[in-house]
Structures are given as C-alpha cells and as structure tokens.
Amino acid sequence: MTELAAVKAALKTQAVETPSWAYGNSGTRFKVFAQQGVPRTPQEKIEDAAKVHEFTGAAPTVALHIPWDRVDDYAALARHAEDHGVRLGTINSNTFQDDDYKLGSVCHPEASVRRKAVDHLLECVDVMDATGSRDLKLWFADGTNYPGQDDIRARQDRLAEALAEVYARLGDDQRMLLEYKFFEPAFYSTDVPDWGTAYAHCLKLGPKAQVVVDTGHHAPGTNIEFIVASLLREGKLGGFDFNSRFYADDDLMAGAADPFQLFRIMYEVVRGGGFTPEVAFMLDQCHNIEAKVPAIIRSVMNVQEATAKALLVDRDALAAAQAAGDVLAANGVLMDAYSTDVRPLLAEVRGELGLDPDPMASYRRSGWAEKIAGARVGGQQAGWGA
Amino acid sequence: MTELAAVKAALKTQAVETPSWAYGNSGTRFKVFAQQGVPRTPQEKIEDAAKVHEFTGAAPTVALHIPWDRVDDYAALARHAEDHGVRLGTINSNTFQDDDYKLGSVCHPEASVRRKAVDHLLECVDVMDATGSRDLKLWFADGTNYPGQDDIRARQDRLAEALAEVYARLGDDQRMLLEYKFFEPAFYSTDVPDWGTAYAHCLKLGPKAQVVVDTGHHAPGTNIEFIVASLLREGKLGGFDFNSRFYADDDLMAGAADPFQLFRIMYEVVRGGGFTPEVAFMLDQCHNIEAKVPAIIRSVMNVQEATAKALLVDRDALAAAQAAGDVLAANGVLMDAYSTDVRPLLAEVRGELGLDPDPMASYRRSGWAEKIAGARVGGQQAGWGA
Amino acid sequence: MTELAAVKAALKTQAVETPSWAYGNSGTRFKVFAQQGVPRTPQEKIEDAAKVHEFTGAAPTVALHIPWDRVDDYAALARHAEDHGVRLGTINSNTFQDDDYKLGSVCHPEASVRRKAVDHLLECVDVMDATGSRDLKLWFADGTNYPGQDDIRARQDRLAEALAEVYARLGDDQRMLLEYKFFEPAFYSTDVPDWGTAYAHCLKLGPKAQVVVDTGHHAPGTNIEFIVASLLREGKLGGFDFNSRFYADDDLMAGAADPFQLFRIMYEVVRGGGFTPEVAFMLDQCHNIEAKVPAIIRSVMNVQEATAKALLVDRDALAAAQAAGDVLAANGVLMDAYSTDVRPLLAEVRGELGLDPDPMASYRRSGWAEKIAGARVGGQQAGWGA
Amino acid sequence: MTELAAVKAALKTQAVETPSWAYGNSGTRFKVFAQQGVPRTPQEKIEDAAKVHEFTGAAPTVALHIPWDRVDDYAALARHAEDHGVRLGTINSNTFQDDDYKLGSVCHPEASVRRKAVDHLLECVDVMDATGSRDLKLWFADGTNYPGQDDIRARQDRLAEALAEVYARLGDDQRMLLEYKFFEPAFYSTDVPDWGTAYAHCLKLGPKAQVVVDTGHHAPGTNIEFIVASLLREGKLGGFDFNSRFYADDDLMAGAADPFQLFRIMYEVVRGGGFTPEVAFMLDQCHNIEAKVPAIIRSVMNVQEATAKALLVDRDALAAAQAAGDVLAANGVLMDAYSTDVRPLLAEVRGELGLDPDPMASYRRSGWAEKIAGARVGGQQAGWGA
C-alpha cells in the first residue's frame, strides 16, 4: 500500500462521536436563543445525529446525557439509533443541575448529597449496561466560588471515595473517562481543574479509569498537545471532547478558533499511537447562534482535515531533521503537511466511501433543515435545562 | 481637621450604588440555583437594597435594569424607594435578551434590529427623565462567535451611529456611560472589548459620554489601575462596576478575589481626583450560591475597606520616595497602608453615623432574611430571564 | 485584469522590512546562544538583509536600531545598502540599555534622565534626515516593577511632554510610530501598555503620529485583528512589527505560532484599505536557536502566504453571507481562503519576478551560510548588548 | 499553651532559605542593571545572606547554584557560612548556560549532550555530599521553540532516563526536588511544564523525588493553593520557590504582587500539615531594580506575614461554617485572618527572639549597604552569566 493509500485507509476508519445535547438549544448565562427544528426528544436528537453520519460517514455513534436523554427503554432507543444507521455511544452523567448540587455533588460537604450524586453515577452504569456503551464520561461541576468556602483537600478525599465506588461497579469492558476543566461553573477552585488531578485519580483507580481531554478546558496558553503526548505515554488517554475556544470554554466548533492547534493535537495522537478505538474522539460543543446540524457536520470535517494533515506529515524527514537539530527544517516538515489543502483528498475519500464529496452542500440540498423546522413544532425543545 | 479626621469625613461621604438585579436569582449557563426570599418585583428589590443601605449607610441608590425593572409608573417607584430610604440611580439598558438580538443589537447587520435596539435605548432615556436618573449605562453583548461571521469594521460604524443618536437625546444633566468587556457572550469578537474602544467612541460623542470600568471585564493580567489613572487623566472616567474575578467575568463579590487590586484601584481614584460624585461607584455582581443581601453588604464593606486604605496612604512620604527613586521605600509606603487593619476605623465611622459598627452581624440579627423567606412565596422570583 | 491577476499584482508589490538586529545574536535572560557567521557591523547586517531580499523579492528595506547601528556616515551606509540592492528603512530608538534608564527613560522621575532620553530621540530624527528614513519607531521599556514605585499618572504627563518635543522636530515627510507593549521588561505597570494608550497620545500629537502594532505585545486572548480594524478605521495604523508567540513576547517567526491569526490580521488590513505604503510591514523577531537568515526568509514567506490567503477571500460572497446573517456560510467563505494552499501561487509570483520559486532552497544552495560562517571570524558579533 | 502562644512558637521556627544568586546582578533580556556592592564571590554572597538572617532571624540557610558558586573546597565554604551564622542549603543545578544546551540538556536529541548534563547533575550530588545539603533542586530550561522542532514524547523518555540515573545516585538522606515551569526560556513546549508532569516523574522515581512549586511558574489564573493542597495530600510536596508575578515569571519579591494569594497558599500548607522541615521554603527572585539585601529581607517578612495570618485562621469556626454550607461565613472566617494586621505580632516575635522588631529599619541603620558599596570594588560582580 502506498503512503497515500494508507492515509486514505486511515481516514476511512475515523469515527467522531457527536453529542446528543449539541443538537438541542444552548446558550450563555445571558440568553439561550431558540432555533427552529430543534429536537424535542432523544429520538429526534438521534435522527439529527444520523444525518451527520449520513453526510460525513464519520460520525457513527451518538453520546447520551443522563438525565437529558433519559428514556424508559434504552434497548428501544438503541434500536431506534440502529434503524437510523448510528449507534449509541458514551454515557455522560449530570450532577450539576439539581438544586441539591449548589455546593457540589460528589465533593459536597453533606454526605446525603454525595450519596445522591453517586447513585446517579451508578444509574449511568445501569444505562450503559442497557445501551451496551463502553464509556462513562464524568465531568463534575464541583468546586467553590470563594476562598475558604470549603476545604480543598477534604473535597479531594470525597471525590476519591465517590470515584472508587463507581469504578468498582464498572463491568469488564466498561471504562470511566474522567474529564478535567480549568474553571466554570466554579470560580475560585475546581475539584478536577487539570490533567494532573485527573491523572492522579485515574492512576489510583486502575486501568479502566482514563483521562479525557476537552480541548476547551485549559488555562490560557496551555500546550494541549504536550498533555496529549504525555497521557498517551502514560497509557492514560481515554479520549477527547473536541471543541474550540478563543477565551474560556467557548465550546465553538472544533477547529474554528485555532486549526493549527487541532492539527498539532492530531499529530501527537498519530505519533503516540492514539489513532485507535481506545482513544474516543468526541465532540462537545454549543451551537448558540449557528444552525446545529450543519455546524456539527462542519466540526466533523474540521477534525477530519486536521487528521488528514497529521497523517500526511513526513515522519521520516521529520525524525531526520529533529535528530540533526535542524530547527527550521524540522518545523518546515510539519508546516508542509499543515499547509497542504487536504480538502481534495477528503473529497476523494468520501467518494470512495460512496458519499457526496461535499457534505455541507449535500446536507443543504437534502432539505432536512426545512423538514425538521416544519415538523418539530410544539412540544418542548431540547436544551440544557432538563 | 487632622488627617485621620479627613479620612473619616471622606469615608462618611462614600456612596456605592447597588444593582437591582443582584438581588434576584442568577447563575451560570449550567444552572441558576434559586434562593429563598428572592424579590419578585422591582419594589421588593428596592426593599432589599434599602436594607443594605440601612446597615452600611453607604448604599443610598439602586440601579435599575430595563426591562427587568419596567413599571408603569416610575415616579411611584421613585417614591417607593424614598419611602424606604434610598433613591433610584443609574438606568441600565438591555439589548441582549430579545430573540432578535441573536447576532447583535446596535451592531446587528439588519437595520430593523438596530432600530429596535436604539429605540430601547431611547426608551431608557425616557425612564431617566421619569426617575430623575443622571446616568444611562450601556453594555452591549454585541459581537461575533466566528471569524468572518460579520464585518468587524462595519459593526463599529453601526455602533457609532447608534451611540450618536442616543447621545443627542440626552438631557443637559444626563450622561451616557459606555461599558467595555473583553468577551462573553460573544466568543470571537466583541464590539466594545476594551477601554480604548470605549474611549475612542466617547471622545467623539462629547463630554456627556464617559467610560465605565467593570473590574471583571479585562484580559488576564491587565493592570486595571493604569486604565483608571489614564481615564481620569483624560477626564473620561464615568464610573465603576465593581465585582471580582479569578478567571473571566466571574462577578464575585468586590474585593473577594484580589483585595490588593481593589486597593490599588481605589488609590488611583483618590490620587487622580476621582473620589467625587462624577465618578459613580456601582456594584455589578452575581451571588449565585451565597445569600444575596448579606453578600452585597459584604461587597460594600469591601469597597469601603479598600477606600479607607487608599485614603490612608501617606502621599507625602510616597511622593518623596518616588522622587528619590527608592523603589523599596515607595512600595513600602503603599504596603503600609494596605497592611493596616481598617476595620476598627470603619467601625468607628459607622458609630459616628449612628450605625451598628458591624453591618453583617446587625443584618443577621435583624431577621430580614427569615422575613423575606417567609413572605416572598408564590409569584415569579426575579432573575435575568425577563 | 482577472481577480487572480489582481491578487498576483498585489503580492508583487508587498514589501516587508527586516530589522537589522534580527541578524545579530539574541536570547533570553538565561542565555544568548551565539551563532556562527553572525554580523559584526551594520554593514554586515545589511548584507544579510540583502540576501533575504535577493531570495524573496519582498524585503527591500532594512530597519536600523540606534545606537546598535550607529555609524559616522549614514549616507555611506545608505549607499552600502543600495549597492547591495536594499534601502535603509525605519529608525528604531533605544532608551533601555543605558545604566541611567533603570527606572525609565522619558517617564523617569528625574528630569535629567528624561532630557537624555529625549535627546537620543532627537538624535534619531537627525539620523532619519541623513538616511532619508520616513519613520521613527518608538518603543519604551518604561514602567515600574512594584505598586507604588512611581506615580502612574505623572509618568503619563512626562511621556506626553517628551513625545510632543520629538513630534515638533519631525520633518514634513517624517512620521512617529508609537509602539505599545503589554509587559516586559517592566513587571507591574508599563507606560504604553495597550493600543488605547498609544492611540490617545497619537491623537493629541497629530497626523504624523501613528500607532504600530507588534503582534506579540498583547494580553492573552486579545483579538488583534479587531485592533487593526479599529486603528485603520481611525486612520491611526502606522504599521506592524510582525512576530509570533505562544505565551508572552516570544518573538518567534511571524506565522509560526498561529498562522490563522496572521491571516485574520492580514484580512483586516486588506479589508480596511491598509495594504498601502502608509502601513509599514516590519518584522521584529529573535532567532535565538534557529539560523537567522533563513528564519527571516521563512518569516517573510509566512507573511506573504497570509497575505495571499487574505487577498483570495471572496469578499462579495462574504458580504452576502454576512448580510444574510448566515454564520456558517460567512465563516465558510473565510475558511475557504484560509484552507487554500497558496504556495503554488506564490511560487508562480516569484517566477514572474525572476526569482527562484523556492526561496528557502535557493538560499541553502547559495552557500551564503557557509560563506559568512567562514568569513565573519574575529571581531564582536552583533547582539542586543550595545 | 494559648493559641496565640502556639502561633508565636510556630513563627519562631519558620525558616526561609535565600538563594545565593539573588544577591548577584540580574535583569531581563533587555538589560542587566548593575548595582553597587554586589558580591563577587560565593563567600560574599553568603555574607549578604547572613545579614538577612541577622535581621530577620528567619533565613538560616543559603542555597547554592552550581556552577555559579563552584569552589574548590566546599567544606571551607560551609565553614565560612557557619562563621557568619548561616548554613549551606539546597544545591541548584544549571544545565542551561553552556553553549551545548541550545536545544536542551537532559532532553537534548544528542546523547553526548545528555551525558554532559547528567554528569553535571551527578557532580551536584557530589557537592551535596561535601556541603551536607539535603536537597538537589532541578530546574530544566529544556523545551522547544517551534512545533516539530523535536519529538515531545521522546524528550519525556530522555528526561525519565536522566532523572533515574541521578535518583540512583542520591544518598539515603538526600532528596531530588523537581521544579516545573509553564514557559521560558522555551516558547513552544517545555519539558516539565506543569505539576502533573513533575508529579508523574517523581511518582515513578520514588519517595526521594518530590515536586517543588515555584509560585511564578504557572499559567495565568492557575489556582496554586489547589496544587499545594493536592501535592501535600499525595505526599509529594518537597518545597517552594517563592516569588511573585503579575504576568509571567516576573520573579518579583514574594508577596508583592498578590499577598492574598500567598496567604491562601500558606493556609493550605498549614492545613495540609506542610509546615514542617520536609517542605522547604525557599526564595527564588530577581531584584533587577531594587536594592538586593533589603529586598530579600522584605521578602522574608512577607512570607512571615502570610504565614502568621494563615496560622491565625480560626480553623474550628471555619470547619463549622464549611460543614454548614454557609459560604459567606466560611469566607468571612478566612478573610478575618487575612484582614488582621500581623505586623505587631511579628514585631513581638522578633523581640522575644532578641531581634530588632523592624528588620528593614535596623538593616538600614546597620550601614551594611554603604560598607559593601565601598568595599566590593573591582573584580567581577556576580550574576547569572557564569
């Protein structure tokens, strides 16, 4: 197989999971702008997700968020997904929207609130059993807003205890992905603020606990690809929540704010052996002002373009320049791949997969946007508010 | 008058305006945690604000937010305030919560939306006429989320046009305070992102247009006191929105995150001749998890403490050390004032004003929290969502 | 002329000034790593600059730094430049390396130090008269390290006075470019920290005073293209110091850290009518670990690539999508241009100019690096230390 | 013992190590401003350090930096220290100032350079044997400036290998303190950029490897006290390099930029059981423009004040408020301690130790500054340049 053939083969296997909640309404603390045609049920979210897969061929699974996607019959929901050509993916927990969680969930000073939170996490594993999901993604909004508000260290003890209980409940083929976040919604201390904290907890828990990197959850200036390389080296990278940001956790479309950074991240994934099913590629975004389905299509395409460029890096030439200490040549090899316009290559890949080479245009032509705008009237549009 | 007497006299004149919306519920995009006893009407907000003034003696006015505080009879609302011992203050506009404003208000690409936004601003001046308010505070959520989304420069032209129309409508004793903000809710470009932009617009508008500094609206690391000193030097500092932050626009209690910074800001205010009614001291905060009325009392006290320390700086000694180029001595003079525990001094000031020396304790003893929790049941608690 | 022909015509006119000091040694506070073949005289720096122009065709002028490039006979230096195919450009002042400047230069508390600094600036205008340079670029290291160290506002007064004296000395065709910088070498306050400060001073001085944007001199997260658009709108953008950064003022090669940002900046330049000789494109970089001449060639090429992409933006399509409020389409138009591989286009442009299409390779083949490494032995290599 | 007596007893035991290099000249990449009376030898640095201890009673040890403090006879140097009333402390390595280290030291692509760097580290352990020092402090300037320049992951492998060799050489009572730093002098990737990386390496090395927290080495907005609490919880906090910053690694006097942060850090130290000899308190600062000896005295005092306030926190009241979920009360307990003016308490402590209650004034009166300015003439002033 030629090198280009290998690149194309790799691209054909790429799968980016899309999140059910990104199809629903979202916004900032100032305003949620409702959009036409937004799903009202988990089923409708899955139908939208299926459209993303239909046009990209690269989004075969949908992540669920409990309780936003709570249904009576998960097996039926799984069948609904399969009927539409996709599968259910990662289960995301929610311990931040109940009134009890004002001061935290698994780190809350009161044992009863912690119990409630852990019970919810255990329920999520039950859902995983029903859906056949492999991964439980844990993001905790826990933290404090004011110095002194709570004991930073005691909260770590509580966190460790909760994680251990959930870890013990995992099945043999199930994993726990622990997400870290720099800040928000807590404004002074966050209980899992950085990769070091997530890593330290996962290390103690065991091999089924892995760190998930949300590309929007870092301090300004953080070199994310360094973290990716380090976690892969430690065997502790469980996956990504892709999105992009200019300032804080802006949750913009992946690749929209800093496409060069996304390329560098994907390069470390490829170089570190992370382009495997063990590293889950997921989106976690908010399409506050742009149309949701095409924004997600675009995001998947952005991830594909960054991946294509990463795969095109001439690694032999790079290694040679690095070994020679030739700074400009080594940087040049990387930039050659980045400067390449990979859209024709991806169009070709799509064609070979029997897809339209231009997912955005074909989605537009499909009439789906108009159809759902007309059909999804009445009921309660999905959103973050349960 | 001795120096200490002068400091006390100055402290007795200090007035910090509290914002009506800080008494209502607030939160993050993830969750608004409702609190007991939260006001349901502008009148109830004013009653809470009156309590803050009752216990601090330093919060004689309340800022209104239109439309959140829209009433049929503003004169009656003003009388309600006076009956409770306070007055109505600054009028704050809102051009970010209507569905039409998804892509902006006064900077929106469509003329009809801009018209609607400007009409709202003009309505706010009408309200000012009715309430006798001096200041119109303008904060625009306008901006874009994605590169290319709109034309950055054309948006400035639209902004200038809107401001000019509103400026022309101001009465002789009315002012326009233009607020800037680094980011949020827009995540790529913000139409008034920094003091330079606000200053340039105000300069063209004329003397009734002034810049307002929200202490939470800057890029990481920004030296805010430099901006304060510069605006005072230019005669363009109209006031402050005080709050504090560790990360972004966290809207924590003033002085809670970096009390040394608040002191340095107040020092520049004092040094630059800004401790006058021409510079409005206002709070703009969100008490997402802490009790609201005492949080605002505490914030007023924090501003008072920073002011007291700023007034205590030995400016002769400071000037001498600065002129001598004695870095350590000059820094030492400033730190001497900052290291001083001014709580006894402020307790004394309060005693001389006939107030309890400990506003937090006296508020707690007053039973107000219990009273409103019991009384304000039913109805719609106030919050950001209109 | 077809659109592509217009793009090529524009690219052929692009001129990027290179700084004499970038050919000399530089480093961090920890270490300056000397390189072989580094120039020892202003003449040798000019010879290196001439090589950059020889291979790129886009670097026809060299900026001088006084006193680093002080010579007895500037007319002779100008002839030396012309003999090598380039011209002398902007004159850069230096008021930060004399022992007297420990606490500042034009903002220093002592009048005698300020006098010395202003005299140096006036000397720089003398140099401009001799070299025929149009622009005086002013960057001040002035600031303070500790709160209280000096009076922030008094320093502004001193700055204004100094600038006014220098401004008065400018000839009819001469300009003053005032540079701002967020921090470094001052660590608490900087006397020209942001574009607002530079703008306010330039506005008072008059039309010959213009702001220069160094792309590395902003707070984290700053939207630089917004500043560019604003300054162009105000008629106050005098030029750029290009370089790139991941953290602070890293002074890396332009376009190396965030090529998408450089593209967005160049788009605002093009859109705002700034692609004219009135807006000076300059590099200001430090090649601490990479070979200097090829690093500068590469930087010029990076600016060219960003410019080419900016020129390729379909502005009609962009305006239509913006007017329609179609966020994804408008962003898509911009990204289409950015995703384009413009290297073939630039190779074509170079060919039409009689240049080798690959400046890096042709420089390597030229043997210049080996030649100067062999020839420039002995003497004092140029660097920042005078 | 009353609580206040316990606080005073604790304060009397506090020891802050001062760094030999802080007594020498330092600066930025733009300029090193030489000061009068700066030491020319390790012996003279120790004499200055002894003065800091003489006036504060809290700086009994001096850290050495190899090769800056390389001498033939370390035992003699230790005696010199003891003769002046202090002891030699931590040994700091230097793998950043040799020309060979342009592309790194222990992470360099070439094995020969790595060998040289490791040999230097082993030499430092030899020095420790001779001086009786317990701690080897490792800070690596290693990193890259450009994407692609070197392989991020391979550099981690090289780092691990080097650390393992040095760890194996440590004596039973010796420790290795691994320092992390966000950026500088490397501007794209740094090989030990954050606590997570340092922690992961130390964990694998074993109990004699501990993390050292330099308070200036974090991304903007990082909650340092969280890291302190976490490392103490993990048993992996080896010590501090105290200094303060507004922007990057400004190396200002500890407590000068954000005294509230220093207090919060010291509170976590106290709360986490870190106020023991196992956690080394060290300064690492640059006094670029202020007089060095008094700046270090001041820094020691600032650490003492933060510690005193931390010790004064009413931990029972705090725990009660935290358990009750009373955000304002809990924050209030912490702020009560912070608002306290502890200067009188520390003056008392000094008096009881037989010291002048005002170290700054007594140092000024001592005439030391004048004495060394007169005596230390000729020779080579100490500085970072070897």
Automatic annotation (TrEMBL), chains A, B, C, D:
Organism lineage:
Bacteria, Bacillati, Actinomycetota, Actinomycetes, Kitasatosporales
| A biological process term (GO) from this entry | rhamnose catabolic process
Print the keywords alphabetically: Isomerase, Manganese, Metal-binding
Note the superkingdom of the native organism: Bacteria
Return the NCBIfam families for the record. Answer: RhaI_grampos
List GO molecular-function terms, semicolon-separated. L-rhamnose isomerase activity; metal ion binding
Gene assigned in the entry:
rhaI
Q: InterPro entries in the record, alphabetically?
A: L-rhamnose_isomerase, Rhamnose_iso-rel, Xyl_isomerase-like_sf, Xyl_isomerase-like_TIM-brl
Q: Does the keyword Isomerase apply?
A: yes
Record-annotated Xylose isomerase-like TIM barrel domain positions: 69-246
* Keyword Transferase attached: no
Q: Fetch the Pfam families from UniProt.
A: AP_endonuc_2
Assigned EC number: 5.3.1.14
Q: What is this protein called?
A: L-rhamnose isomerase
